[in-house]
Amino acid sequence: MLKFLIDADTGIDDSVAIYYALKHPNVRVVGITTSFGNTTAPQGAENSLRLIKMANPGYEVPVVVGENKPLFGDWHGPEYHIHGSNGIGGVEIPETDQKPLDMKAEDFIIQMAKEHGRELTIITLGRMTNLALALKKEPELPNMVKNVIFMGGTYKERGNVLPMSEANIFGDPEAADIVLQAGFDITMVGLDVTHKTQVTPEVLQKLLKYATPENKAFAEYIVKATNDVYFPFNHAQNNCLDRSPVHDPSALVYATHPQLFTTRKIPCRVECKGEYTRGMIVADLREYPMDAKYLNICVDVDNVRCLERIIATFTEKAFAIG
Ligand code: RIB
Ligand code: CA
Q1: 2-312 maps to CATH 3.90.245.10
Q2: Ligand nearest to the CA of 168
Q3: What is the dihedral of CA 82, 87, 90, 91, to 10 degrees?
Q4: What are the structural domain ranges in the chain?
């Protein structure tokens, strides 16, 4: 059994990633902590709680509200034009009685590391602020858990905020650099692979058609949630192609099926200054590289099989996704 602690800014693609994990027969989600980004940390927690109810995993999944701003400076607020008014496309999914735990996200991360030790994978799908704060309190964290997998950054692919900067890293570069230099076994699932795996409205319509009864509600939600803002935003950002990159779910697929990805270990730092480069992952390919920890970077993916893995979570029938 794989044990995941997921830290998310629970927006549209985060919700697919979380649902995938909650439905996976070989995965136990030990908890969800939230951060700011697609929406606020409290709204992300509310979205996560409602998703848990919808997924009905058959076990308790605690949720903790995390930081709502980066380590330094302020946050300008959610990306309403990408993820809608509530982070999940403005769709109201059914409420739940479950409430977030009354504790700090960094304390919950440390507690889970103590409880699950080397079995635990920490997966971040947003800013790495909560994990950086956990490291400040417990510098031994890298020796306590199995590994860290994060969605964010880019190695050679173009960025989505600045020329070479991706949103999750750009949103709190200081936190990302603390995490990268802490000594974790750490893998980056960045834009090099998430831009390669793309989903179209047609695929989501087929998903709705073939969803098993227990996944119908989620399929209906994701079609609605992507319809109004997510696909139109991606249409505008991706040279008017009617398709969207599969960001956060790719990190979960890496966590369950790493064999679908090609990786390369390179010493890296995060650029924390720079008008045009803040948030850039600086990978040093020189013979005598700078003094930096090695990062395992996903440089390629079997994109068809990656998308198939996600779709198979919801459907009993295979269908052509091309
Ligand atoms: O750049 C893509 C990332 O930013 C994804 O995690 C998305 O959910 C947003 O957080
Ligand atoms: Ca995210």
Answers
A1: yes
A2: 1
A3: 120
A4: 2-312
